[in-house]
Amino acid sequence: MDGDQERRLKAKLLQMKAALEAETDSGQGETVELDQSRMGRLSRMDALQAQQIALEAGRRRERQGLAIEGALKRIESGDYGYCYACGEEISFARLSFDPTVTRCIDCAS
What we know:
Blueprint (H helix, E strand, L loop, with lengths): L2 H23 L15 H37 L14 H6 L7 H4 L1
């Protein structure tokens, strides 16, 4: 991978990080208050389900944020673009699709 490709991937990672931070700052995933005296049983069930979906979305955002930070650290250390399992270079096409991957296509499958 040449320097221009690495710069493009770093820019993509920074865009992903900014979008993730904006999504997190928008307040998605707030806790649902369940007042049993004002809400029916089905409404409470719907609210609980929505709350669990929001919690899982928060966990996914957290995992994605860690993957992005890890990729940015690997770029800084010079380890970016190499498979953790076999040490071979990960193809630019694979990194373009998901710049946070840590394994080549052979080791991932």
